[in-house]
Amino acid sequence: MSETAAANSNDQDALVVRQLADGVLRLTLNNPPANALSIAMMEALKSALDAAGTDNDVRVVVISAAGKVFSAGHDLKELTAHRSDDDRGRVFFEKTMRLCSDLMMTITALPKPVIAEVDGLATAAGCQLVATCDLAICTDTSQFCTPGVNIGLFCSTPMVAVSRAAHRKQAMEMLLTGEPVDASSAKEFGLVNRIVPKEYLRTVTDKYAAVIASKSALTLKIGKEAFYQQLERPLNEAYDYTAWVMTENMLARDAEEGINAFLEKREPKWSDR
User: Fold this and answer.
1) Closest among 41, 227, 29, 19 to 134, alpha carbons compared
2) Calpha distance 231→239 (Å, rounded)
3) Which residue of 8, 74, 177, 252 has the fewest CB atoms within a 10 Å radius of its CB?
4) Average pLDDT of the segment spanning 130-143
């Protein structure tokens, strides 16, 4: 077992429980009932993701949660406690929002695909976390919302991820009303890929993860990076960039092996190079 798998894999008191099997690293948010994204939770999750990024045994990451709430977002009690600071909390608020942004960017930049497995409520920064992951699978009773407007705190940082995953007007609907949307609406909006009954959630997620883990790690790394890079470019620049990416990809050993295996009607043997 790799160091990543060994650390905290059996520690049920850890904020993030880590389990590695067959190339799939499962990171479970483990602070129910809210699984709030406190400073400690975000640091623990980011540390686990950073370790996964350089662990060759990890090919896919799944982020799940213990309890009935995937994540209720930032820890409002933790934030409010710092209003008595000399600066009324400005430094702590900046630290919290910056750390959250860094966590989301870590997921996007991670050279491994990340799947959100959602059973329950994902709200505010918790919804942001789901929207940031590359794929999301949820139960049919899950709900998603960006309710900051209800407490006078617009969900501006969650808006970044939600507006890039959902259609514009639907993202604005969530942000302006603060009302929860059900799983069916979340799929229609573009926040999740699949909706499954609760009893099949783990099975379906594991199936998706296993399929992805069977691919060349190098190819997944190249493809994920290119996907997010081209999204932010004008059409002509996106084509220029991806033409360069595919040329470099074609020169990789795994592309040569994969094409030869296809032509020879056999299974490829990846070297991740």
Assistant:
1) 227
2) 11
3) 177
4) 98
Domain positions in the chain: 3-213, 217-263
Evaluate if residue 4 carries a pLDDT over 90.
no
Task: List the one residue out of 180, 186, 152 whose CA is nearest residue 166.
Answer: 186
CATH code for the part of the protein at 217-263: 1.10.12.10
What CATH class does 3-213 carry?
alpha beta
Q: What is the pLDDT of residue 13?
A: 79
Q: What is the DSSP string of 59-112?
A: -EEEEEESSSEEE--S-HHHHHGGGGSTTTTHHHHHHHHHHHHHHHHHHHH-SS
pLDDT, tens digit (0-9, with 9 covering 90-100), for 19-58: 999 999 999 999 999 999 999 999 999 999 999 999 999 9
Q: Quote the pLDDT of residue 12.
A: 67
Report the length, in residues, of the chain.
273
- Candidates 28, 42, 132, 122; CA nearest to 78 is 42
Quote the pLDDT of residue 1.
Answer: 36
* Single-letter residue type at 70: F
Domains 3-213 and 217-263 belong to one CATH topology: no
Cβ count near 247 (within 10 Å): 9
d(CA 98, CA 259): 43
Please tell me the pTM assigned to this model.
0.93
CA 65 to each of CA 34, 45, 149, 189: distance values in angstroms, whole numbers, following the listed order: 10, 12, 25, 22
* Residue 36 vs residues 51, 66, 95, 227, 236: alpha-carbon distances, Å: 22, 12, 16, 30, 42
